[in-house]
Design a protein that fits this description.
This protein is mainly alpha-helical. Helix content is 72%, strand content 0%. The termini are close together.
Length: 276
């Protein structure tokens, strides 16, 4: 812990900025309808392509919609995609990894093959397949991003389980006749969650970035929906003439992903000081 404190002190200011940014984005997105912002869908033909001003802090787009309002409301969509995708990856990947690591043998080999196969399926490819079958939608993007993150959770949970299962308290519980399910639930799973939480924190940033990329390709369905990735693709051709159309959602994506990575790094150092 003494070795950890100087490191945390050195990054304290970046960590504070990251936490403050995430709080700002999260609170703004959560309470967006209560902030008195312009309707993100409202079109004002006489306000088309207005530069940033007191009335429109981030300017307006080619349909006269307020960019600031769309960025704030877009945070609701982007954060929701990240949470749903990471929740799906956590719910499937962690049990898969814990089971594989604890049981070992043929079960471990079979599940490891499944994990490796999933590692070869990029989110973009999954989304393209789902769009071809089901059509473009935000739900398909969530599903594709979530499936693409499952191997990361499974691998971390498996690696941690391989270490935890050799601890004395697990061996003692097994000797006393505890069932496999009880061992996994009461003794193994709680002790592998710490590194998985780090993966989840960083995974949120990765999920938001992946979903923005898929939305940029037009795979998220309704293009009028305020979403950071779709805002980039809708305005990319106007970047040189009206850069504010791209800068605002770009900063939102970059700041959110970077902040999640910084918080994840800090959690990793705090939860595993041996890595220092």
């Amino acid at each position: 812990m003494k070795r950890l404190l100087p490191r945390l002190g050195a990054i304290a200011w970046t960590l504070r900025l990251a936490v403050a940014f995430l709080l700002l984005v999260s609170v703004s997105a959560l309470f967006a309808p209560l902030l008195g912002l312009d309707d993100p869908y409202a079109q004002e033909s006489d306000q088309r392509l207005q530069a940033p001003s007191w009335r429109h802090p981030f300017g307006t787009d080619d349909l006269g919609r307020d960019i600031f309002s769309r960025v704030v409301f877009g945070g609701r969509v982007s954060l929701s995609v990240g949470l749903v995708a990471v929740g799906l990856a956590f719910g499937v990947g962690v049990p898969l990894g814990v089971t594989s690591g604890y049981l070992g043998g043929g079960v471990d080999r079979c599940l490891s093959v499944v994990i490796e196969v999933l590692m070869t399926l990029p989110a973009i490819l999954l989304a393209l397949v789902m769009v071809a079958i089901l059509g473009p939608s935000l739900g398909n993007v969530m599903l594709a991003v979530g499936i693409s993150q499952i191997p990361h959770f499974a691998r971390q949970a498996r690696a941690s389980t391989l270490s935890v299962r050799e601890h004395d308290y697990v061996l003692a519980a097994s000797a006393l006749g505890a069932t496999t399910f009880r061992l996994l639930r009461r003794h193994v799973l709680p002790n592998v969650l710490a590194p998985v939480v780090v993966v989840a924190t960083m995974g949120l940033g990765g999920a938001i970035l992946e979903s923005a990329g898929l939305s940029f390709l037009g795979l998220a369905g309704d293009p009028s929906r305020p979403e950071w990735g779709s805002m980039l693709t809708a305005n990319r051709e106007r970047f040189l003439q009206q850069p504010w159309l791209v800068i605002a959602p770009g900063i939102a994506i970059t700041g959110t992903v970077l902040s999640f990575n910084i918080v994840g790094d800090a959690l990793r150092d705090w939860l595993d000081p041996r890595a220092m």
